[in-house]
Design goal:
XRCC4-like_C, mainly alpha, Helix Hairpins, actin filament binding, Myosin_tail, elongated, 12 helices, coiled coil, about 900 residues
């Protein structure tokens, strides 16, 4: 998720940057060009759709910027790379695995919720069953009372019936006696007496019928009551079956709970292991975040440099565009001038052809004039000689022809003069335009050469800057990929830890459910005892009901008394059970309160541990940040010095390259250069030897550091346990970071040595040989072109340049050797101070960890004592309630045994009572 968010931020940032740059470029384009065509096109297309208050230029800018953004994002290489790399990332897979694990966790939570709901339903059903059972017991007791009343009534009716039968029998006997007496006595008195007796007999029969009807009704009521009694017994049997089924389900749930508890124990072990690994990984995460912040800073600096380079590139591109536009304008001007020159040439050719024709006609006319003058002279001579023979008319014709010819000659002269003047003006104009054309061509060539020179210089600068930026970007990309891989690993571990925490929370919920089940077990056990007592009561009641018919009134009274005692005891037992349940609830509340206190104490302990650890970590982090800031400042200073030396070395390298180009023109100083190269190689060997000695000293310091660490490990701090191991791991990580910094310094030193070796190799023998070959080829060419004098002049110049180059190279080598020495000295100082600081920090940290460990051990012991006391209180309370309940159960069993004995004795007495009655009879 973090990578995706960073990608989005980067894409949005780049899109905005590109948008701003394109807007600036578009504004420049609008300043350079007219917007009339775009405005007319836009007004023609969007006048019907745009609002009245909108601006056409703003709308066009937004439209064009959106189109450019779309095209740039569509054909952007980074976007294509992102689309290709995204399926290869493990983040989506981790999200899918996380979703699957979340789904499994959700299913487990649902199952546990279903189990808890089932348990709650079972509790509710048990409560309802217990309520129904108590209600049925009350109804049975009431119905028992009604049955006892009905039985009493039945017995009374039976007694009345027996009495009535005895009276009827007496009346019959008396009637027979009286009939006999009637036979003997008077008939009238006997008949009257007989009528009286018959009337009494009819009354007795009516009473007997009424008693039989009442007896039948009582029998029906008894049957109905028996049916009513049977239905609760059937319901009780069904409820006993459901209770047995629930108990089976409860056993299955207990087995499943045992399995889940085993899994919970395994997960707790795993969680403990993961918490330990999580603590390690959190430290790594903090370290990686610090590294990431540093990388962000470096990336920001690189971005600033890239933006600066892009701004320079934009400026150079704008300059090139302006130069190209100026070049295009000049070319257009040249084309116009060429067209004008072409038209002038055409006109000139026309004028020249016209002037040639006029000259030809003039020559013809002059020849004609000469011929006519000759003819005139001849004619004059002939006329002077022969004036007599010619008449006056012919003379006038000749004069007329001569006048016409003279007039034509004058016209031709005028036209010739005009044509000559025009040709002279055209020739002057052509000369001026040729001069202007030559100037323009010369300016155009100079501008083109200047533009090419600036463009080549800018291209070189841009290529160098882009190469450097590309190298920095590649390094940053590599570091970014490494950091991403580490962050992905840490995210996966954190997710696994979170999953394990979620599982542990689920298993803790299951443990709470187990505790609730234990409470339910106690409740079910209590209810079972109550149900057992109720069943005993019902059995005794049924026995008493079956035996009540054969018992006497005394037995019924004793039964009622025993029933009252049993009900009273039953109520006392129920009250005791309720009191036990209330005590159990109170104990549960006490336990929950103690558990809450334990949880609060554990949370306080964790907070204290976390606060102590956080304080220690903050303190260590601050000290580490302080030391890192100091060392980073020193490293930055060294980096600045190194960059300055690199800049100087680059300037020297540029001068060396210039001198190398000058060195390509010489051949005489190769021996001196080889001698200098030998001296430079000797110096470099000395430097390499010094570097080897420095590395040996570094190795010796590392050995001494290891010995010190071994001494620390074997000393008095070896008994610090796991906390010291963790801190030692942190120290190892700090050492690894310092080793990485040292490796960076060594790498930079090697790069510096590589650059120095490149300079040495550039000034070495193989390039000189290549230069020699090129110089020989150029010398041959120049010997053919310029001659020996030019070569001697160049030789002197190159000698002086080569001497200056040798001096500058010596200075560069000296500066480089001084820098290497200062770097070695600083590295040794850094290592020594770093080791002393690390030893001091570790000593302080070990002391602090000892104090924290002692405090934690004391708090843990106190919490353990409190927890043991709470458990003892809870166990004592539970045992006391169980003992009380067992004592009450035993008392009830003893009372039941005594009641059984009394019942046996009463049965014996009842069996003995009829025998005594018979003996008496």
């Amino acid at each position: 998720m973090r990578d995706e968010r960073l990608d989005k931020i980067m894409t949005m940032l780049q899109a905005r940057l590109w948008g701003t740059l394109m807007r600036i470029e578009f504004k420049k384009m609008l300043e350079r060009r007219s917007v009339t065509q775009a405005r007319s096109l836009y007004t023609a297309l969007y006048t019907s759709h745009r609002p009245k208050h909108s601006n056409i230029e703003e709308d066009f800018l937004i439209f064009s910027s959106n189109v450019k953004k779309f095209l740039q994002l569509r054909f952007w290489g980074w976007w294509k790379l992102y689309t290709k790399v995204k399926p290869l990332l493990h983040v989506a897979r981790q999200e899918e695995e996380l979703k699957a694990k979340k789904e499994e966790l959700r299913v487990a939570h649902e199952k546990t919720a279903e189990m808890v709901e089932k348990i709650k339903e079972m509790d509710e059903k048990l409560v309802t069953l217990s309520k129904d059972k108590s209600d049925s017991a009350l109804t049975l007791a009431a119905e028992g009372d009604t049955i006892a009343d009905a039985e009493e009534r039945c017995n009374q009716l039976k007694k009345q019936e027996m009495n009535m039968e005895e009276q009827i029998q007496d009346f019959r006997e008396r009637l027979e006696e009286e009939e006999e007496e009637e036979e003997e006595g008077a008939a009238t008195a006997l008949s009257a007496h007989k009528r009286k007796l018959e009337a009494e007999l009819m009354d007795l029969k009516r009473n007997l019928e009424d008693l039989e009807s009442t007896l039948a009704k009582s029998e029906k009521e008894k049957q109905g009551l028996d049916f009513k009694v049977r239905t609760p017994t059937v319901d009780l049997n069904q409820r006993d079956d459901t209770i047995a089924r629930f108990q089976k389900e409860r056993k299955a749930m207990e087995e499943l709970q045992q399995k889940t508890l085993d899994d919970l124990q395994a997960e707790e072990d795993r969680v403990n292991h993961l918490t330990k690994s999580n603590s390690k990984l959190t430290t790594q995460v903090h370290e990686l975040e610090d590294n990431w912040e540093q990388e962000k800073k470096i990336r920001g600096e690189v971005e600033k440099a890239r933006r600066k380079a892009e701004a320079d590139l934009k400026m150079t591109i704008d300059n090139l565009n302006e130069m190209e536009r100026a070049k295009i304008d000049l070319e257009e001007v040249v084309k116009k001038r060429d067209l004008e020159i072409y038209h002038v040439d055409v006109k000139l050719e026309d004028e020249e052809s016209l002037s040639s024709t006029l000259h030809r006609k003039l020559r013809e006319h002059q020849a004609r004039i000469e011929e006519l003058e000759e003819e005139l002279e001849a004619e004059r001579a002939i006329r002077a000689k022969c004036a007599f023979w010619f008449n006056r008319a012919s003379w006038f014709k000749v004069e007329k022809q001569r006048a016409d010819l003279a007039r034509d000659l004058e016209d031709l002269g005028d036209r010739l003069e005009e044509a000559g003047g025009a040709t002279v003006a055209l020739i002057e104009r052509n000369k001026k335009r040729e001069v202007e054309l030559l100037n323009l061509r010369r300016e155009l060539g100079e501008a083109a050469l200047q533009g090419e020179a600036t463009a080549s210089a800018l291209r070189k600068k841009h290529s160098v800057a882009m190469v450097e930026l590309a190298e920095q970007v590649e390094d940053l990309q590599k570091d970014k990929q490494v950091m991403k891989a580490e962050i992905d690993d840490l995210d996966s571990t954190v997710e696994s830890v979170q999953k394990s925490k979620a599982r542990s929370a689920a298993f803790i919920g299951l443990a709470d459910a187990r505790h609730d089940l234990d409470l339910l077990k106690v409740k079910v056990e209590m209810q079972r005892l109550i149900s057992k007592l109720n069943s005993d009561v019902t059995t005794w009641r049924t026995k008493h009901e079956t035996d009540a018919i054969h018992k006497t009134e005394q037995l019924e009274e004793t039964k009622e008394a025993a029933w009252r005692k049993l009900t009273a005891r039953l109520r006392e037992a129920e009250e005791a059970a309720e009191a036990a349940q209330a005590r159990a609830a109170s104990l549960e509340k006490v336990k929950q309160g103690l558990q809450g206190e334990v949880d609060d104490l554990t949370i306080d302990l964790e907070k204290a541990d976390a606060a102590a650890a956080a304080a220690a970590l903050d303190k260590k982090q601050r000290a580490f940040d302080k030391t890192m800031a100091e060392w980073s400042q020193k490293c930055e200073e060294l980096q600045v010095e190194l960059e300055n030396s690199q800049k100087e070395c680059r300037s020297y390298m540029t001068e060396v390259y210039k001198l190398k180009t000058a060195c390509e023109e010489t051949q005489d100083h190769l021996e001196t250069v080889e001698k200098d190269n030998k001296s430079l190689t000797d110096e470099i060997r000395d430097l390499v030897e010094q570097l080897g000695e420095g590395r040996k000293s570094v190795h010796e310091l590392q050995k001494a550091k290891k010995k010190l660490e071994e001494c620390l490990c074997t000393g008095e701090h070896c008994d610090l346990g796991f906390g010291f191991k963790v801190e030692q791991g942190k120290v190892v990580r700090v050492q690894l970071e310092l080793a990485q910094v040292k490796a960076d310094m060594d790498r930079r030193n090697h790069e510096k040595e590589g650059e120095f070796e490149i300079t040495r190799s550039d000034s070495g023998k193989p390039p000189v040989e290549s230069l020699q070959a090129s110089l020989e080829a150029e010398a041959k060419g120049r010997a053919e072109a310029k001659g020996r004098a030019e070569a001697l002049r160049l030789k002197k110049k190159i000698d002086s340049d080569l001497n200056e180059m040798e001096i500058q190279l010596d200075h560069a080598n000296k500066n480089n050797s001084e820098l290497v020495k200062t770097l070695k000295r600083l590295q040794q100082q850094i290592k020594a101070t770093r080791m002393a600081e690390e030893l001091r920090q570790e000593q302080d940290h070990c002391d602090h960890l000892e104090k924290i460990k002692k405090n934690n051990e004391l708090t843990i012991k106190e919490l353990q004592l409190k927890e043991e006391e709470a458990e003892e209180i809870v166990l004592k309370a539970g045992k006391s309630t169980i003992q009380k309940l067992e004592a009450k159960a035993k008392e009830l069993e003893n009372e039941r045994d005594s009641e059984q004995k009394r019942h046996v004795e009463t049965n014996k007495r009842m069996q003995a009572y009829p025998s005594t009655g018979r003996d008496r009879a």
